[in-house]
Amino acid sequence: xxxxxxxxxxxxxxxxxxxxxxxxxxxxxxxxxxxxxxxxxxxxxxxxxxxxxxxxxxxxxxxxxxxxxxxxxxxxxxxxxxxxxxxxxxxxxxxxxxxxxxxxxxxxxxxxxxxxxxxxxxxxxxxxxxxxxxxxxxxxxxxxxxxxxxxxxxxxxxxxxxxxxxxxxxxxxxxxxxxxxxxxxxxxxxxxxxxxxxxxxxxxxxxxxxxxxxxxxxxxxxxxxxxxxxxxxxxxxxxxxxxxxxxxxxxxxxxxxxxxxxxxxxxxxxxxxxxxxxxxxxxxxxxxxxxx
Length: 292
Ligand code: C5P
Hints:
Elements: E1 4-23, E2 29-48, E3 55-61, H1 74-85, E4 92-93, H2 98-112, H3 119-129, H4 133-138, E5 141-146, E6 150-153, E7 160-166, H5 173-183, H6 196-204, H7 207-213, E8 215-216, H8 219-225, H9 228-238, E9 243-246, E10 253-257, H10 260-273, E11 278-284, E12 290-291
Parallel strand pairs: 1-8, 3-4
Antiparallel strand pairs: 1-2, 1-12, 2-3, 2-5, 5-6, 7-10, 7-11, 9-10
Helix pairs in contact: 1-2, 2-3, 5-8, 6-7
The protein binds cytidine-5'-monophosphate (C5P).
């Protein structure tokens, strides 16, 4: 019999800018990225069963197929990690997926066990689980530096409307970074830097200027590994998107549009073009992992 359960809603993100520096000796790249949390959510429910039965994990949302249920799952790792800190926490078991769900698990566990972690403690656990996990705790719009995990809030006005072209087959993040290095092998790579143009556009709440300022150093690598992405980017531009970008290491392509109506038109155009698997619409910025 469950004695307590907590559900945490956690958003997806898009990268409005992803500037990738050279590979460091630890295998990671120095990044400057601008994240925006968008209104596509997973709900992660964590339930404490009878004493000794462990932690029961439930995940719901649009993208749950293919979620690992074994100990490779980031949520299982999150539970184990917190158990290390608070030694009386029951052993984990369940199903979840990806960085967002790991962020949700941290928040849920903190609440379930009344750990009352500080933001810094949650952030520290999150960054050990993955470079994007800390941002999903806080949400909104933020600049990520270091591996992408050192966050500062970005000043942003207004609401931005997105159309997302999703792919049923993923791309491996390490493979995309490797391809990026390969494509740039002959060049001197400068340290990553923030786009002042993007920062000003966000501050002004100027969606058109945000659209033309979107940039991603991983985009050509993602398009080389998945040539169909170039077609998807073209369709969006043709149908009046303010900007189009591969989000993170892909393969999701994010189109910024002027308003909901433009989003609907573009979603219909993308669907009928036959070049995308499925289409979603969202707005941002939204909150990070939040207890329901
Ligand atoms: O931190 P996370 O586990 O999400 O990173 C996945 C992979 O992405 C890493 O193993 C690395 O290959 C690549 N990566 C990188 N530089 C970063 C972040 C991620 O090379 N700053």
